[in-house]
Design goal:
The structure is a homodimer.
Chain A lengths: L1 H18 L6 H17 L18 H5 L2 H7 L3 H9 L5 H19 L2 E4 L1 H13 L1 H4 L4 E5 L26 H8 L3 E6 L11 E2 L3 E2 L1 E2 L2 E5 L5 H8 L5 E6 L5 H6 L3 E4 L23 E6 L4 H11 L30 E5 L10 H15 L4 E5 L5 H12 L5 H10 L5 H8 L9 H25 L3 E4 L16 H9 L3 E8 L15 H9 L9 E7 L5 H15 L8
Parallel strand pairs in A: 2-3, 2-8, 11-12, 11-13
Antiparallel strand pairs in A: 1-3, 4-5, 6-7, 8-10, 9-10, 9-14, 13-15, 14-15
Helix pairs in contact in A: 4-6, 6-7, 14-17, 14-18
Catalytic activity (chains A, B): a monocarboxylic acid amide + H2O = a monocarboxylate + NH4(+)
Keywords (chains A, B): Hydrolase
Protein name (chains A, B): amidase
């Protein structure tokens, strides 16, 4: 018997030896990824110097390292750049190289890039310049690493997926390349892709350009930080709980979570690809508001629904949703939601919403009203359960397979919450019914308010310190409802934004969030708002905010 | 110890006695439902006589029992009726009563009604006639029993749900009532709602008006039979595998399975309401082709997406998809698919498709080509697994709870197929990925063909004998792909439609289907086709067929 056991053990080890190559230490895999990134950075010409002393606020550093022309290019609105390239004032090569240089600086400042693509990008501009005027949009675009580029590794921040190499481009990139765009930079994302910060065993932490003690947000956090430093003016992110919006808000740029099933998101690496109870979306982040509809319209003009039959064939409607009246004003009813009834936002968020409310009331044509949240705690319970209907099994297995340590927020989201448990199919159906009933009830609630668009917080505060972004309710709410939501910068955290002396915590989550804040800790962090519309009313959201922005002279800060 | 056991047993029986009322025999429940139905029939005035000798072909009987005016009304196109009621030539009371009378005759002939609503319907017409001209559409509409009407029982053919009474109308009925419609008849459906015939322990079998040895189809089979006998000119059905289309085809009327998420289907009783891997849809059956777009447009004009946020806000596009060219013809490329590569349709189906193909080739502007199916067997495997992701547990439990016997096709669909098994959440995700990959591949395949619309069989034959409709592939295919599919009558089974002497079975399913057929057994059965478009191209499908029908003088039979 003993011999038989021994025989089996021997057999087992032999098979293991034959079929499982020994696991490479995760540190070696991460090191290789970093070396590759550094090599691509080193190929940028002229080389970008190392930055020896990293300041709290990184936003001023590029001005000391780049040429006047590079600064002018990278701080231009994308619409201006496209126009100047089309008219021959700027070459697409010069524009691409300026962004490559600034992205390299951004990497050295906040650690936001997984790789640059100087050779491929500049080679492309050579061919582009020849027929630039026909194409019209040779804008450099940055992408999130999880989005497939043929021939480049795509690991989605999972160490175990380090050698996955897609053989074709994501659908969205095919369309953008056809439109003339130039791909030149890929950006970082967090372990699991499922939290609102960016840290991983590949690249460690992507910090906030405005205050390196704070997070850049996530999961499109590399993208947000790169845009915050103007290393990109237009980039692609993804969002299933706030992953476009939180990085946009934390870094003072625009971002749109579009209604699902409008933009093509086939061709990406992520866990749970078959789950459809809550749909992830792809969308733009930009330093410019007009670039947001330009991006969406470029995609929809290509009729992506012909190739991807899961999409709804709705073109971007360019006729005004709010026509200008005879008096020169637009008639818009805006709701302001100060909190979601679950976690109270920090002082600067309240200040900004109150200022907007007051000033909007004075804009001709605009009616502004306070919007009452409807059971956002229930929404959070439903969406949290549906995110990980397998109890997080796939994510946990992928993490375990590499042997690399869990990041604190991976633990928080996958292991410390009672809602994460393996569900049976009938349990998923029950939750789906609850989801739909909640969606119906919210539609009624919203209809009663009579508002066109809603202005609300993006989160319970500006960018927090790393490992503290534990409450997704302000963004996940609109994922559950599948409402389009635009992020727009408004202000920054100011010394006047002191703690509310009369604060009383509503619950543990609220108390935790309150404990994070002081105006000193959050100094200089951008303060943004979320502008939310009804499902499929993406155009309305963008148009309403463009009008508000113009009327109120937003943003109320020189550089956010 | 023995005493203790005895004590527990006693306790158990006591509790059982106290909390479980004895189960009512299912026969008593069914009897009550039939008595209720008969009482509502008896309230129709003047009374409809019993029909003592039931002929093989029921379609001529109404002519012997109804008045000339009633015949004229019930055999009119709904568009004509609406116009005549609007202009005051006909009262809505006369129209409603004519349909009530003919529906009562239909019930006595083919057993297709669960109840008539003479009092409520006629009371409504009294109030309607007063402001008829404003409303414009006081058309009597029949509904499938599973669709909620406030205050009426809704059992969805499950005995155990005999006492379910919704407290509000289905969304779709609210809109139709607002548009002036009159509800006057509810129709039968099969046990489980999940097969393409109509038989249940409530009402037994709904037979085919054209040949009572054949099935009326299902699950909207009561509806199909009622329309086949002109006891209704426009009715509402539902379809997750062919349940609108097969009854429409079997009874020689029009039916549309619209693209999902267009028409409001909230407010119905059915098992697995939270399942969304394969979406059921609601849609019209009618004796008239123009009434199909009228129905859809009436619903979409009410903007149902404002109340039901799961819907896509796409209005019915009335501008021609195929504009008429200078020469007076429309340019349409039509594919003809003769079989799905899995089960070969019977002779009359081939005959009709070949005739259409030949004649279409002669119509100016129309290009016609043979369309090759793409892996329809794979589609069938995927959809079959996704229908019952809980292994049919909910259906089986609902059946078991009543103690009533299983119908043969309930057994076939739930217990005799290897694809029906309880799946885990990750298994459902894997199948969902397969589903989406298949959808993508089919979109490519279809794009290569360059066709605008496809003409194909509705099933592997005309209406079969009861308990024989075992192959859903021809309709379920378009549920899996979520393509809009219109059913249109073309011909009937003729004595010339003899068995193909060179038939060789491709597989067991094919051999079984072949064994069912002879022109004698299927005598007089309507032969219809299915016209299929790309997702969200419902308008294109209807417009293309209207053109074909006009050019070819369809249908090629006096009464189908």
């Amino acid at each position: 018997m003993y011999l038989f056991h021994k025989y089996l053990l021997h057999k087992y080890l032999l098979l293991k030896y034959l079929f499982h190559k020994p696991r490479e230490p995760w540190q070696a895999i991460a090191k290789r990824a970093q070396d590759h990134r550094d090599a691509t950075l080193a190929a940028v010409q002229p080389p970008v110097p190392d930055i020896l002393e990293l300041p709290l606020d990184s936003t001023l550093i590029p001005k000391t390292l780049l040429t006047q022309e590079e600064l002018q290019i990278t701080e231009s609105d994308p619409m201006t750049l496209i126009q100047k390239m089309s008219s021959g004032v700027l070459s697409s090569e010069a524009v691409t190289n300026a962004f490559l240089r600034r992205a390299a600086v951004a990497q050295k400042l906040v650690n936001c890039v997984t790789e640059l693509m100087p050779e491929a990008a500049l080679w492309r501009t050579v061919s582009l310049d020849a027929y630039l005027k026909e194409h019209g949009k040779p804008l450099p675009i940055s992408t999130k690493e999880m989005i497939h580029i043929a021939g480049l590794t795509c690991n989605a921040a999972f160490i175990v997926w380090h050698d996955r190499v897609p053989d074709k481009n994501a659908h969205i990139l095919e369309i953008l390349l056809d439109a003339g765009c130039v791909l030149y930079a890929r950006t970082t994302q967090p372990q699991t892709l499922m939290y609102l910060e960016t840290s991983s065993n590949y690249y460690r932490i992507t910090v906030n350009p405005f205050n390196r003690n704070l997070t850049s947000g996530g999961s499109s956090g590399g993208k947000g930080a790169l845009l915050g430093l103007r290393g990109s003016s237009l980039g692609i992110g993804t969002d299933i709980g706030g992953s476009i919006r939180v990085p946009a808000a934390n870094n003072g740029v625009y971002g749109l979570r579009p209604t699902s099933k409008c933009l093509p998101n086939q061709g990406m690496t992520a866990p749970m690809p078959g789950a459809e109870h809550i749909l992830g979306v792809i969308g733009p982040l930009s330093t410019s508001l007009p670039a947001i509809p330009l991006f969406v319209k470029t995609l929809l003009d290509a009729k992506p629904w012909l190739r991807d039959p899961s999409l709804v064939p709705l073109p971007w409607n360019t006729s005004p949703r709010f026509p200008v009246a005879a008096a020169g004003s637009k008639t818009i009813k805006i709701g302001v939601m100060y909190h979601d009834g679950v976690v109270q936002p920090h002082t600067p968020i309240y200040r900004v919403l109150q200022n907007l409310h007051t000033k909007l009331a004075d804009v001709p044509g605009i009616e502004v009203t306070t919007f009452t949240p409807y059971k956002h705690d229930e929404a959070w319970d439903i969406i949290y359960s549906l995110y990980f209907a397998d109890g997080g099994a796939e994510e946990k297995a992928a993490l375990a397979a590499s042997g690399a340590p869990w990041r604190p927020l991976s633990k928080f989201i996958l292991s410390e919450n009672l809602n994460v448990k393996p569900l049976s199919v009938p349990e998923v159906w029950d939750l789906t019914i609850k989801r739909d009933e909640y969606r119906n009830a919210y539609a009624r609630h919203r209809a009663v308010s009579g508002i066109d668009v809603l202005i609300c917080p993006v989160g319970p505060g500006a960018a927090p310190k790393v490992d503290c972004a534990r409450y997704w309710g302000y963004t996940a709410q609109w994922n559950l409802l599948d409402y389009p939501a635009l992020i727009a910068p408004v202000s920054k955290v100011l010394p006047i934004d002191i703690l509310d002396p009369e604060f009383v915590a509503w619950n543990d989550q609220d108390a935790y969030n309150h404990s994070l804040y002081s105006p000193e800790k959050y100094a200089n962090a951008p303060v943004s708002v979320q502008v939310v519309g009804r499902r499929f009313e993406d155009e309305k959201v963008v148009e309403a905010w463009a009008y508000v922005q113009e009327k109120l002279g937003l943003p109320w800060a020189e550089y956010v």
